[in-house]
Amino acid sequence: MKIQILGSGCGKCRRLFANVESAVKRNGIDCEIVKIEEIEKIAEMGAMMTPALALDGKVVCSGRVPGVEEIEKILMHPSLPA
Q1: Long-range contacts for 55-61 (Cβ within 8 Å, ≥24 apart)?
Q2: What is the pLDDT of residue 77?
Q3: Residue 66 in 3-state DSSP?
Q4: What is the pLDDT of residues 18-46, one digit of tens each?
Q5: Residue 47 and residue 51: Cα distance in Å, rounded?
Q6: Would you please indicate which residues are annotated as catalytic (active-site) residues?
Q7: Whole-model pTM above 0.85?
């Protein structure tokens, strides 16, 4: 699984990255976490607001910073809406 954090690198983006790292560690999830800061790439992925969280290129949450527990649910059940 590839987890992408979409955003400019602001405080909210850094908080989202930290929350994702915590969720991954707590659940022993084998994945790659990538930051995408280029506005063109973020727009190509369909994120209308940042920060955004994407799994394997599909935006699953945008415009807010989900907590660790919510991210765990997203990672365990990626087909459910966030």
Answers
A1: 55/1, 55/2, 55/3, 55/4, 56/1, 56/2, 57/2, 57/4, 59/6
A2: 81
A3: coil
A4: 999 999 999 999 999 999 999 999 999 99
A5: 9
A6: 10, 13
A7: yes
